[in-house]
Amino acid sequence: MNKGLSLNKSSILKVCIIVAILIVFSLWMLSYTYAEDVNAGLSENLVRLHVIANSDSAADQELKLKVRDAIIEYMKDKLATSQNIDQTKKIINENLSNIENISRDVIKKNKSNYSVKASLGNYTFPTKTYGDIALPAGEYQALRVVIGEGTGANWWCVLFPPLCFIDATHGTIPDSVKKDLKTSLSAEEYKLITTSDEEIPVKIKFKLVEFLEGSKVRISGVINKMFN
After folding, report:
1. Do 49 and 143 touch, CB atoms closer than 8 A?
2. Which of 43, 58, 101, 169 has CA atoms 20 to 30 A from the CA of 109?
3. Which of 60, 30, 67, 55 is nearest to 209 (CA)?
4. Burial letters for 120-138: b for 16+ Cβ neighbours within 10 Å, e otherwise?
5. Tens place of pLDDT for every residue, the chain, 228 residues?
6. Taking the CA atoms of the chain, what radius of gyration do you get in angstroms?
7. CB under 8 Å to 111, separation ≥6 — which residues?
């Protein structure tokens, strides 16, 4: 009798453990799928600018910012009439050579001879805040400009919608830009990046995306270092 009862309790315990594992696995899969969907939506509807310095020396970092300023000034006029992300990508692709030439001119004027490579593609980014908008870590479309060896600290902003062309470091994003964001993104994506610090459920979702996508970014970085 006691032996049968013991076996029954053991079986129940095993079933409970299996059920708990299945629940945890299901929640993880749902969370991962949600994070992937959010990142895919943001990536498809945003284009970022990514400028990477030759090294972390003070001179190279200062040079990076000068190159950045020249690119932003040039692209501000080129993208002034862009109405959507496809037009923005088309304009960027048509001006990659010009962006490289402008960057080289800045580099030469500062008595350096680094090479420059501009490209439009998908790249990984950490979490970044622009005024009152926060973008979680993940993979995004970006205009990447690599100066020289490209081993220094990098700088990034958003070309579409045009966050690069406003000073959002300490303030809020203008309503006109938020309107563009709202039009470009789903209601869920827009709410996630504009209210993550205000509403607890939204903040939890943001942290979830940040953690899962950020983990992918870190793992990708480790793998790249191992094989480069």
Report:
1. yes
2. 169
3. 30
4. beebbbebeebbbbbbbbb
5. 455 555 576 777 777 777 777 666 665 555 555 555 666 667 788 899 999 999 999 999 999 999 999 999 999 889 888 888 899 999 999 999 999 999 999 999 999 999 999 999 998 888 787 777 777 878 889 999 999 999 998 888 888 887 777 654 445 667 777 777 788 777 877 877 776 445 444 455 555 555 555 555 554 554 455 545
6. 23
7. none
E strands, 4-149, are 47-52, 116-125, 128-130, 133-135, 138-147
In sequence order, what DSSP letters do the residues of 138-185 get, joined into one string?
Answer: EEEEEEEEEETT--S-EEEEEEETT-TTS--SSS---HHHHHHHHHHS
Task: Give the whole-angstrom CA distance, residue 179 versus residue 200.
Answer: 24
**C-alpha–C-alpha distance, residues 103 and 147, integer Å:** 9
What pTM, to 2 d.p., does this model score? 0.69
Write the single-letter amino acid at 148. G
User: Six-digit token pair at 171?
Assistant: 């303030």
Q: From residue 167, give the alpha-carbon distance in Å to each of 109, 157, 171, 215, 225.
A: 26, 11, 8, 30, 34
194, 184 contact by CB (below 8 A): no
